[in-house]
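Lab notebook, bench 4. Still working through the backlog of constructs that have no structural model yet. Next entry is a single chain of 285 residues. Request: give me the structure tokens for it.
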Amino acid sequence: MSSLRAPGSYAGAVVAMGTMHGKEKQVAPAFAAELGAHVLAPAGIDTDQFGTFTGEVTRTVAPIAAATGKARMAMRAAGVQYGLASEASYDTWFGVLPRHEEILVFLDDSRDIRVVEGVNVPGAPGTSRLVDGPEQAVAATRDFGFPSQAAAVKASVADRVRIFGKGITDLRELIEVVDEAVAAADTRQAWVEPDLRAHHNPSRRDVIAALAGRLARRLATPCPGCACPGYGKVAVREGLPCQVCGCPTSLIAADIHGCPACEHRSTVARTEEIAEPRFCPQCNP
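Model written out:
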């Protein structure tokens, strides 16, 4: 990324964050330190309409579109030109290794730009476990760090998934909710899982705070071509050469940095200069 800095671009700006779950607390310190901007979360907005982790509302749009919608909602509620929101997905690499993807979307209507910063990190708070009763439920929640990591409980009732509780951090409440869910469930079993919302998910809060620092530093970086803030990575270029035969591989050779407002682009080589032959399609046909 360019070493140029534009710390005054958002000095004094009010940035509305679309969240119901306190994520502004993770973002505000970096935006204040790097940009001199103030991040707030307007009260009374319903970001759950874009989807919930526990499935009451199905996610129907891509993460960037969902985060953009949340940011727009916050901007309208606060009456400001700058908006921000995050969106998370939990999945696996190759169907085995747990993966957490988090994105932050920043909107600036004064410049008509959108800046997206994202990260993929290994790990997840835990997995959903099917339990027969409170004893198994308590053991399952201990595996994912209860009570600092909150729990959610759901079960299939009349062939539909019903949420019996989430944001559970009290052992007595957990036992009562699991008893209720198991008694009502078609199979007399319930699912116990981590509550993945940020205010009940310590590992996610850490990821958001680190990502906010990256986004704030990017917003403090002007485009070398037009000086618009937000210059940073927009794509990658594959083709890292094989150590043995020199043929291009699918590994990333360079990052492409770009401007959210103009067509200026630059190529930044990765520190790795060669790829191991196990990644080479010529050496491993």
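Notes after review: The mean pLDDT is 94. The longest strand covers residues 82-93. Flag for follow-up if needed.
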